[in-house]
Amino acid sequence: MNSDFVVAVHSLVYLAHRPGETLSSEEIAANVCTHPARVRKVMSLLRRQGLVVAREGAGGGFRLGRDPSGVTLADISRAMQAGSLAPSWCSGDPDMDCVVGANMREVMREVFCGAERRLEEYFGGITIGGLLERIRERSPV
Fold first, then answer.
1. Which of 34, 73, 75, 102 could form a disulfide with 96 if both were Cys (CB 3.0 to 4.6 A apart)?
2. Of 28, 33, 26, nearest in space to 16 by CA
3. Which residues pair with 87 in a beta bridge?
4. Mean pLDDT by 10 residues, the chain (141 residues)
């Protein structure tokens, strides 16, 4: 998981909040509090999966490509290719004489794989539309 995932989720919820509108990367970036170039990078990944539609040129920008109630955080995670929860380095060496050192890497791989499956299941139950509803419930307006 990385911060681009958060940028993607925020951007999609903002687009859902403004249905039918095409928003520029500058406008989205101002709402997300990040740089427009970062928004464009994230949106290009989302566009490949059909989660957003891009329009180039004057008056161009982004709009949702799917109904927000059908877009899950799992969809976004896959689109962002967020990768593994497992760190790139893990302790131990299968060739060690010590039972702990020889087996720690594989045991931790199993732990992280299990965590990823549970996270995928959890994210699969949360939609962009649902997040927007939760936000609206908090708003006095």
1. 102
2. 28
3. none
4. 90 96 96 96 95 90 96 93 69 86 88 90 96 92 68
